[in-house]
């Protein structure tokens, strides 16, 4: 099967439970850390917190518009959150691991996605991973800003 995989990791200065909660809250915090202009809209169709949530995500990257219908699961509750659009062949995983005695978190965003057949798929494999890494790094920047702002408010 034609597919690509990519991942980006970063240490965020917040406990794992706080970082996981950002990703699990699709009504507020997860929506707040999606980088614009790539993520143009996210609608919660069902649930809204962690496993069982269903969302529709609209993206626009270099003029290409894509819509995903993602179902959220928690293969490891409190540690691993997955979003999957089986029809599109896209799986994204958010993993949080404690570092520094649990005072900080190593966050890993991972995606595996099916590509088109033939030459188009070959081009997708070349172009999509670097663009996705850029988007994921921006998302992790926003997560770090979100926890820093939340800590100032608390």
Task: Write up this protein.
With 154 residues, the protein is an alpha+beta fold. It has a single domain, classed as START domain (Alpha-D-Glucose-1,6-Bisphosphate, Chain A, domain 4), CATH 3.30.530.20. 32% of the residues lie in helices and 43% in strands. A hairpin with a 3-residue loop joins strand 4 and strand 5. The protein is globular and about 50 Å long. The N and C termini lie far apart (48 Å). The mean pLDDT is 94.
The domain tally reads 1
| Gap from first CA to last CA | 48 Å
CATH architecture heading: 2-Layer Sandwich
The 3D shape can be described as: globular
Q: What is the tally of beta strands?
A: 7
Q: Could you give me the name of the CATH homologous superfamily? A: START domain
CATH topology: Alpha-D-Glucose-1,6-Bisphosphate, Chain A, domain 4
What does the main sheet amount to?
A: 7 strands, antiparallel
How much helicity do the residues have?
25-40%
Helix and strand succession?
Answer: EHHEEEEEEH
């Amino acid at each position: 099967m034609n597919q690509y995989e990519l991942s980006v990791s970063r240490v965020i200065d917040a406990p794992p439970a706080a970082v996981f909660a950002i990703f699990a809250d699709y009504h507020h915090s997860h929506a707040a850390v999606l980088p614009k202009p790539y993520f143009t809209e996210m609608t919660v169709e069902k649930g809204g917190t962690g496993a069982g949530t269903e969302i529709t995500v609209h993206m626009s990257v270099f003029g290409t518009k894509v819509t995903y219908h993602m179902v959220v699961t928690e293969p490891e509750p409190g540690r691993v959150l997955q979003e999957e659009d089986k029809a599109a062949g896209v799986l994204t995983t958010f993993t949080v691991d404690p570092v520094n005695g649990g005072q900080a978190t190593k966050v890993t965003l991972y995606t595996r996605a099916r590509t088109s057949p033939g030459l188009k798929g070959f081009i997708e494999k070349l172009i999509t991973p670097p663009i996705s890494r850029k988007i994921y790094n921006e998302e992790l920047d926003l997560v770090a800003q979100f926890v820093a702002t939340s800590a100032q408010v608390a």
